[in-house]
Specification:
0% strand; Arc Repressor Mutant, subunit A; Tetracycline Repressor, domain 2; mainly alpha; 2 domains
Amino acid sequence: MAKSAGAAARSRTADDLAERIVDAAIACGEEVGWENVRLRHVADRLGVPVSEIGARFADLDAVANAWFGRGWKAMQQPLPPEVLALPARDRLEEVLWRWFQTLGTHRQITVQMLKTKLWPFHPHHWLPLPFNLSRTIQWLRDVAGCDAKAPRRELEEIGLTWLFLATLAIWSRDGSDHQQHTRRFLRHRLINASSLLTLLFGAQRSTPGTH
């Protein structure tokens, strides 16, 4: 039992340091821009050997992935009962907005991370992006309780992928308070998409399930 407790404590310590590394890298990025962040500077900021960072992150891109992972974790939190009772478009807005709201605390750095990932000479950075986008949409539909069958499911996935990318483009340059311009864009597009799907397939029974 004591050995198990000790292992759990070490795991928590490692997780805590990983989170601190991400926070320190973000802070450095705010000062010098993400493309100028160096992991040795992050290590200096934290007062740890650079090997401690290397033991947890393969490179700076892995740190960026951990930052985006916070958006995923926010999306995956169970919806409260009052939101579960809403139409699918409202549930989708709530879940998707969690991603933008979480990463919006450092919106410009997040955008810089994405631009760095798209650098054409780093295919190991940008090749995973379509797969991560697909996972994001799958988590979005799952947590929001969207269980449509084919062919509606495929159309929903295509539409939500386009909507995510379009919303990301608006969000990346949105200087309004709390990115409310982006949220209005998202809400209106979801309303329009819901109307189109209802026209094509008829009204769908809402069965979000229990989280």
